Amino acid sequence: MTAVLDRTHGRRPAAPGRRRRRGSRRTARSPIAYLILSILALYAVGPMLVFVLASLKTPSEISENPLGLPGEFRWENFTTAWVEANMGAGLMNSAVIAISTAAGVCLIAGCAAYALTRLNLPKPGVFILYLLVATSLPIQLFLVPLLSLWTKIGLYDSRFGLIIIYWAIYSPFATLLIRSFLLAVPKEYEAAARIDGAGEITVFTRIVFPLIWPGVLTAGLVAGLQAYNEFLLAVTFIQDSANLPASISLYSFQQGFSPNWALVSAAGLIMVLPVLALFIVLQRRFVEGYTSSGMAG
Description:
Blueprint: H1 2-9, H2 16-55, H3 59-64, H4 76-84, H5 87-118, H6 124-136, H7 143-153, H8 159-182, H9 188-195, H10 200-229, H11 232-237, H12 246-254, H13 261-293
Helix pairs in contact: 2-13, 4-13, 5-8, 5-10, 5-12, 6-8, 8-10, 9-10, 10-13, 12-13
């Protein structure tokens, strides 16, 4: 009977000793894996920890012992940095810019991805090639023409003008991302809705969108975070101090004649905390949206 089973399965069962040796090798590799993961975690968290400690020190303590603990935790650094760096107005401007960018990119990319996958467009491959090229081109190529055009039409030095540029920059990648989700949605759902008399807008909002909203959320988060952290376009197209985002407020505060690095660290931490909190809350949806898309098709 043993011989028959061995012939049926095409291989002999592993010996008990061999199984134990494999298990011992797995167990032996575990401490090494944990050590590597610990080193990577320290590499990622270490600079942030030094950043936090620097925000609680005096400038003299930073120069004398930049990696050590502060002699006294100076929480008033955050209050001083908030006032002197004008972080309140900067964070408000950044929130308006990031949320508006995310909402606009979701709308533009969602409609474009739906058109590419569901409508009978002539040569859709040409549009996809255009999106790939637009994603790869650096924005520095268009900086001078954009600056001239925005000055002529009155969009220079306004948050709305900057948001329009962000829509144009971040929509191509978001379109490709949402398109990969749409390719996985069966068309039978939409066909049944059309039989019941639903139009394209109803089909998209009532049938398709609930099925692809993880991809839309991921695209919006990516665009919003990029707009929040973007520096080059913001410093070029925004000059009014009342419209400066947090990144430019922090940069202006850092450019003092003798910068107080404790206050600069505190202001930088104030800028980082909202994004960090948002990512912690939405990290599962964010990772799921990236991994489940696969950028198919």
